[in-house]
Amino acid sequence: MFSRRKLLRTASLAPAAGLVTPAFAADPYKVAFVYVAPIGDAGWTYQHDLGRKAVEASLGAAVKTSYVENVEEGADSERVIRQLASSNQMVFTTSFGYMNPTIKVASSFPKVHFAHATGYKRAANVATYSARFYEGRYLAGVLAGRMSKTGVIGYVAAFPIPEVVGGINAMLLGALSVNPKATIKVVWTSSWFDPGKERAAADTLIAQGADIVTHHTDSTAVVQAGEEKGVYSIAYNSDMSKYGPKTCLTGVTMVWDQYYINAVKAGIAGTWKSDDTWGGIGAGMIKLAKMNPVVPAEVAAEIAAKTSAIGAGTLKPFAGPITAQDGTTKASVGAALADKDIASINWFVLGVQGKI
Known about the structure:
The protein is an alpha/beta fold. The protein has 10 helices and 17 strands.
């Protein structure tokens, strides 16, 4: 087993008689994070960095963390991950596109523990972790369905991977549960973080009649576009209300703190193992930000009740009936999609205007 602590001698090997032998000090456990975007003050990377800071606050001198931000997916990420693996005992890679580079580097560093966010490939020293983003999206859809006058929701999305497609579907299902005429229009940006593209996409959707906009991208551009144009928005990743104080209704937020703390504690204790974590509202990994005062009290109460029901497992966002764009039935009345089907979803619900 890989030794996780080195003992540093702080006195000579043969202390003089009558002197107290000083205790050996342990080197801190070294943990590194790889971020796909700048940390900033909101968004996907910001939430992961809050988790890193929570590790430091919880474990103090027992741990030393570091990070590299704004690392592009692809060859550059492999270089950064390899560099960090050479000087750390645990490495967290926090974007889907880091999956193959993480697996590749991990094979060269079998004694280093790796954990990859939102991926599905594991190895003896590579774990995976994600959140049930779709649970928060369903609640956002209920809110959008109640607050929209046109019934048109605009969705700025990065890449058509299952977590994004599932989020779009869940949001529409939530909206349809309170407004059977609701639709979602999707614009793809082909980038996790590109404020210019995100803003242009939001402007396009608003011009096409969307009176609620949301996003599965990392910047605050969509929320800012809504605020400037007087259109409601629902933020993603973190609380972005300060960028839309009048129009940002809430935010679907991720809370990674406890996952990171538990993983690092296990690494220090020698009990870490490769597994998959997929937590949602019940596990505290998904939360809605505070509601904007413009949301009627009865709507806020409805959202709170549905939040509790999802957390308790009595409300399933992907419960039938569910019909796909092509007219096929994906879940019948009384049935619900299984986890494996949600995790690999590659089709849109009927009512989504967009292509995968």
